[in-house]
Amino acid sequence: MASFAQATAVKAVDSHTYQAQLLDEYCIGNVPHGGFVTSCFLSAAALHFSTTHLALNQPHTITLHLTFLRRTIVGPARFTVRDVKLGRRTSTIHLSLTQPDNAEPSVVGYLTQSNLHTEQGISLPTKWTLHPPRLPLSSTLALKDDKDPNWTCHHLSPHLSKFRKAAHKTEWYLPRQGQLEPAMADEWICLADGGKFTQTALGFVADQFPQLVDIYPGTAPAAAQSKEKVVSASRREAGKTMWYPTMLLNLEVKKALPEEGVEWLFVRVGAKKIERGRMDLEVVVLDEEGELVAVSQHVCLILDAERNLTRGRGSRI
After folding, report:
1. What is the pLDDT of residues 217-231, one digit of tens each?
2. How far apart (Å, rounded) are the C-alpha atoms in residues 198 and 256?
3. Whole-angstrom distance, CA of residue 264 vs CA of residue 18
4. SS3 48
């Protein structure tokens, strides 16, 4: 079993080409997890700017925009970089991921680099806060021992456990009394291998949470007003496995994590509209002190898992 750092490591082929290995253990069904792939993009950008463009001193990705054109597959992945704009404060690159089975790119994206330690300019307090507030946490030690009064370790149901292999790479701690709102989920998260979250792990963190459709309460008051738009509770209870492939993922990084990484992060994910097999997701990542680390937006499809398991390698979703 590869650690997260090992799994997302990339190697230079030349000054603008990098190689990674997409692993089966980081898959959802047969398809590599979108957040895992995102972290591989972040690793490629980090290596590019620590070697080819070392003199720019821009080690941090501050914005990322990925479009998932077709499914990725387990195996080698090549990242090709095009330098779009190199500047003193920020630089932007275009990255494309291709694999041997298909000459066309599977995922393409733009990433902007900067230095979060040396940024200068106007700063103003906004008084932004989570609403509703997150539940109190006594300590991360109590969390790890599953003794916190508000949070408890979450385990996937048996019919999901095998399908969502990538979910086993983290430990999730969810509210003991259930989520605060029907289309929202809060969690404390840590790596199952005992490693720490670094900047490149933020792509994985921003896509690692309970799926809102799976946990949507069929008897919630909001659901009763619009029953035709809700995936029925009976369908979920019957063990119907769903797949939520990412079409688009945006990430903005607000804070540099310590070089050695952090053990715990808090994640809130919410949807504004879940309708006709498509949903938006807004993800907020905070550190233990409650400081904003990153924000992310996704557009996802809602499909039967059979679409994941039966379609050809590298095919369109």
Report:
1. 863 333 333 333 444
2. 9
3. 30
4. helix
102 pLDDT band (50/70/90 cuts)? confident
Mean pLDDT of 99-116: 94
- Cβ pair 207, 125 in contact under 8 A: no
Tokens for 61, please give them: 């990705």
- Rounded alpha-carbon distances, angstroms, from residue 267 to 135, 203, 272: 12, 12, 17
Does the pLDDT at position 316 exceed 70?
no
What's the mean pLDDT when you consider all of the chain? 91
**Token pair listed for 134:** 């997150």
Residue type at 241 in one-letter notation:
T
Structure tokens at 70: 């077709």
Whole-angstrom CA distances from 102 to 69, 142, 249, 266, 315 are 12, 48, 22, 37, 9
Q: Are 39 and 8 in contact (CB under 8 A)?
A: yes
CA distance 159 to 142: 29
* Tokens 């459709």 -> residue: 213
Query: In the 3-class helix/strand/coil scheme, how is 64-93 assigned residue by residue?
Result: EEEEECCCCCCEEEEEEEEEEECCCCCEEE
In this structure, are residues 114 and 49 in contact, taking their beta carbons and an 8 Å threshold?
no
Token pair 């509210």: residue:
175
Question: What residues have CB less than 8 Å from 87, skipping those under 6 apart?
Answer: none
Q: How far apart are CA 193 and CA 3, in angstroms?
A: 6
DSSP H helical segments within 51-184, as ranges?
Answer: 140-144, 158-161
| Of 208, 189, 192, residue with least CA distance to 143 | 189
Tally Cβ neighbours within 10 Å of residue 169. 22
Q: Say how many C-beta atoms besides its own lie within 10 A of residue 226's C-beta.
A: 9
- Give me the half-sphere count of Cα atoms (radius 13 Å) on the Cβ side of residue 10: 31
Q: Residues 209, 64, 280, 265: what is their CA dihedral angle, to the nearest 10 degrees?
A: 30
Q: How close are the terminal C-alpha atoms of the chain, in Å?
A: 28
Distances (CA, A) of 177 to 68, 140, 173, 269: 35, 19, 12, 17
